[in-house]
Amino acid sequence: MTIAVWDSMTHAIYPRTLLTAFILLAEDDDDLRCILSHTMRQGGHSVREVTNTVDFEKIIIKLQNTPPEQRAINLIVSDIHLENGSILPILKKYRSFISAFPTILITSDRSPDVVDAAMTLGVKDVLAKPFDLPFLMDTIHRTRAAGVTHRRVTGAPGNVK
Q1: Which of 108, 94, 100 is nearest to 124 (CA)?
Q2: How many Cα atoms sit within 13 Å of 79 on the Cβ side?
Q3: φ, ψ of residue 144 in degrees (nearest 5)
Q4: How confident is the model at residue 143 (pLDDT cuts 50, 70, 90)?
Q5: What pTM does this model have?
Q6: What b/e sequence results for 91-104 when a residue is b if at least 16 CB atoms lie within 10 Å of its CB, and e otherwise?
Q7: How far apart are CA 152 and CA 71, in angstroms?
Q8: Is there a domain that residue 117 lies in?
Q9: What is the CATH number of the domain that holds 43?
Q10: Spatial CA neighbour of 111 closest among 88, 92, 133, 91
Q11: 56 SS3 class
Q12: 112 lies in which domain range?
């Protein structure tokens, strides 16, 4: 029996195996990180959590030195601003490598300069806070199913800030 997931945004059904992600979640707000991580795990995904750019960069370096078939991450979900700085310089520094990992950024900073910088670095989606958790999960599912989404700032009225 195949387990399927209904994507309410695209009105499509995807096999669960296609949608399973191994997510690197970078979020410095403890409460929000806990909620996001729990929701992703409930959705059948594996999650590795970090709170700052130093730990994020350490994981990227470790992934670079790991054969592709052994990498434990295949999707990045990150706040743009972490407790010790912006994630954007790291995305720029490792751009050619990180481009292999679909990246979804979440932020309360809706300035066009930040969004344009993120999109220029190959980010697939920028979700504006607040957003609904089902909207985030649909975005993860679409990103895994399609490999690429090309939207600017998206968001749905919600209570996750």
Answers
A1: 100
A2: 25
A3: -70, -40
A4: confident
A5: 0.80
A6: beebeeebeebbbb
A7: 28
A8: yes
A9: 3.40.50.2300
A10: 88
A11: helix
A12: 13-154
